[in-house]
Write a structure and sequence with these properties.
The protein is mainly alpha-helical and 105 residues long. Helices cover 55% and strands 6% of the residues. The protein has helices at residues 3-14, 22-32, 48-63, 86-104, and strands at 73-75, 81-83. The chain has a two-stranded antiparallel sheet. A hairpin with a 5-residue loop joins strand 1 (73-75) and strand 2 (81-83). Helix 2 crosses helix 4 (86-104). It starts with a helix and ends with a helix.
């Protein structure tokens, strides 16, 4: 188990919260497609696909429901629409579902 996973799991446990394995989902996505760009160029902040993937993972944990089949577009509060191709959305949804199923959430 990577140290970052353990660190976030311990934080969730100590706060009596729920752990959403977004980092594990990122790894699962990169296994499926190593060319995915999940970070912004600063290599710190998530890119749009990384944010979508984290949100899928959080959704799956919070609602105890598979993220597979969720919309491939997201509208932000400021009115910006982020549109993924159906294939890219499915890949990210499957990665989130796999991370959750692996016991991360």
């Amino acid at each position: 188990m990577p140290a970052i996973h353990l660190s976030y799991q311990l934080a969730a446990d100590s706060a009596h919260g729920r752990f959403a394995p977004a980092g594990d989902a990122w790894v699962a996505a990169w296994v499926r497609d190593p060319s995915l760009v999940l970070y912004e160029p600063d290599n710190i902040h998530p890119a749009a696909d990384g944010t979508y993937l984290a949100a899928l993972t959080i959704f799956g944990v919070v609602f105890d429901r598979s993220p597979i089949g969720l919309p491939a577009s997201v509208r932000t509060p400021d009115g910006v629409t982020y549109q993924l191709s159906p294939a890219r959305a499915r890949l990210l949804q499957e990665a989130a579902a796999a991370a959750i199923a692996a016991g991360g959430g």
